[in-house]
Amino acid sequence: MTKAGSERVANVLEGATRRLQMLAKEGEGRIASVAKGFEGLAGHTNKILDLTSAIVESLESDRLRSVFPKVQALGASARLFFEERLKATTTILGAVEVEAKLLRQFSAVTRRQAGIALKTSVLTMFTNIEVGRLGEDGSGFQHLAQTLTEFSKTLTDDTEELARHIEARKPTLEATRRALSAELPSLQQELARLDVHLGDDMEALQEGLTRLSEAPMQFRMCVDDIAQQVAQVVSAIQSHDITRQQMEHVEEAFTLIASKMRDGRGKKPGKDASLAYGGLKIQMYQLQNIQATVTAWTSQIRSCIDIILSVSASDVAGISPLVLQREQEVSSRLLHIEQLEREGEGYSERIRKTVGGRSTLIALVSEHTEKSKLVRHHLHLLSLNSIIEASRLGRQADAVFEIASSISDISVEWGNVTEQSETAMKEILRLMEKTSETMQVFAEGGDERLNEAQVQTRAGLRELKTVAAFAAQQAEEIESVTAKMRAMTSDVVNNGSLLDASYSKVDGVLSAVGELKVQMETADPELERGISAHEMESLFASSYTTQMERDVMHAALHGMPLPVAEQLGAGNSVELF
Amino acid sequence: MKRILAVDDSSSVRQMVTFTLRNAGYEVAEAVDGKDGLAKAGGGKFDFIITDLNMPQMDGIQMIAAVRKLPGYGFVPILMLTTESQAEKKDAGRKAGATGWIVKPFNAAQLIAVAQKLIR
Description:
The complex is a heterodimer. In chain A, 88% of the residues lie in helices and 1% in strands. By secondary structure, chain A is an all-alpha fold. In chain A, helix 1 packs antiparallel against helix 4 (139-264), helix 3 (67-134) runs antiparallel to helix 8 (398-439) and helix 5 (269-310) packs antiparallel against helix 10 (506-523). Chain B contains 5 helices and 5 strands. Chain B has helices spanning 11-23, 34-43, 60-68, 87-96, 108-118, and strands spanning 3-7, 27-31, 48-51, 78-82, 100-103. In chain B, strand 4 (78-82), helix 4 (87-96) and strand 5 (100-103) form a beta-alpha-beta unit. In chain B, helix 2 (34-43) packs parallel to helix 3 (60-68). Chain B starts with a strand and ends with a helix. Chain A binds chain B through residues 28, 31-32, 35-36, 39, 42, 46, 227, 230-231, 234-242, 244-245, 545-547, 568-577, and chain B through 8, 10-13, 15-16, 19-20, 23, 53-54, 79, 82-85, 90, 94, 98-111, 114. Strand 1 of chain A pairs antiparallel with strand 5 (100-103) of chain B, so a sheet runs across the interface.
């Protein structure tokens, strides 16, 4: 190489060195801004994680954990409450219908008893006439007549009282029967609807509370994810130091080559040219490697920051609205259950009123039936006594015989009516027993399980509400920190872009050095042959501080592809001595 | 609070060491090269030192050797944080009195774990 050629090479390399020095200085400033921005961003991320952690901690409290089982218990109790009422209402309607039928039978019985009582009154009158006609001889029959008079009066009174009660009861019973018959299908539909709603409520609640219970796990995963991203950014920012050193070594190499070219001044033209050519080749590889490395770590910083920022929009940052939403959902479901319960209670009240008035009547019918049995017994005795008295009176007693025979007929008729009344009574008592069992469902305090479940759920909801309020307060802060993070992110990303722009200036250096290399190749196509790999390594490798630089030099000298920095991980481990 | 000294001529590396260890609850002081590091170590007690190897004015190995001679620094853990991975450099560091070696970039979680293990 000529003296002028050597001078030209030295000039180009000195120019490239200056450009690289400026670039390094600019890059240093940019990376410091990126690092500062990242520190602020990471600080805000930590703040968000702290706030979210406080929410998660309150979510993980034992008391809150028990909300779900409480709500589940409430759902089961409410469902049972409505199912029992639906079943009982159907049973009671059946009982009311049978009771109405029995009362109609009782009406017929009392009508017949009233007829018998009338006959007994008429008979009493005839007996008294006969007693008067017989005079002294009829004194024995007189006692019979007196008994019959008293008995007739009692019988009439009792029968009238029962008839009055039955008549009074009939319209109420009939109205309820009609109402229930008409309403039961819609009542059944309504209760079935309530049951479906309850099922939907429980399903929605379970889903909501399950999502809420997954929040701590999501949070922990999120924390791990952020820690990983932060570690990768820390690692990427440090990589700048490696690039910086690599660039300094390129600058040193350019200076060394320039110095050798100037010092040689054409004394050993072939050797100088080979040295310069080999050196340029190595440094171009190093610069290309620097570009690839910078691209890798700036891109890593961007993607990590994007991931960190996405935390602000994630389910974890959105945990507080989630808690609030679930609390509102659970509260509205509870209100719905209470509303359903009140609707159910409305039906219960109507049924209680209908069935409640029955017991007085049943007692009266029962008492009347017992009295009827007694009447039958008295009538039987009267019939016997009248026959005995008629026999004693002999031929004068034709009329008395007639009366005795009538009393006997009345006794038989009364006996039949009493049997009918007793059968109906037994049926009523059986029904009464059945409906009494059914009515337990509607009894006061029959829904204790539901009430207890409601109390427990309300207590659980109070906890949830406290957590929700706390979460809302934290959420406000999270929102404010997130806004700061977003503003900061754009700064970091801008600085990252400026950093990229700084390192794109390496292209200019590469272009100048590449042009020089082509000129040298054109001037001497045999330059490549003159390169001594060993000599090159001993000349440049002594300043290298990274394995990558050594690998790049090796690739350049042996015509191998450019080694590219692998995707950066979270950094290297410590080796303790 | 335990005190750590981070020595590196690269401001971004110092920033990252400080950021990582401060977040882990340590008080971190910075020095820009070996000479500055030695001065700061002499000026106050540190429980842990992390130093680069290649630095202007005084390199990491020279600094470690000098720090070991300071009163109270005989057993203070000193980690070398460097781009160097050559065995002979590592050996020189060990001979100078380094406790361990990390090739840049360091793993933040690992660095914290080691600091927690070495600082008693």
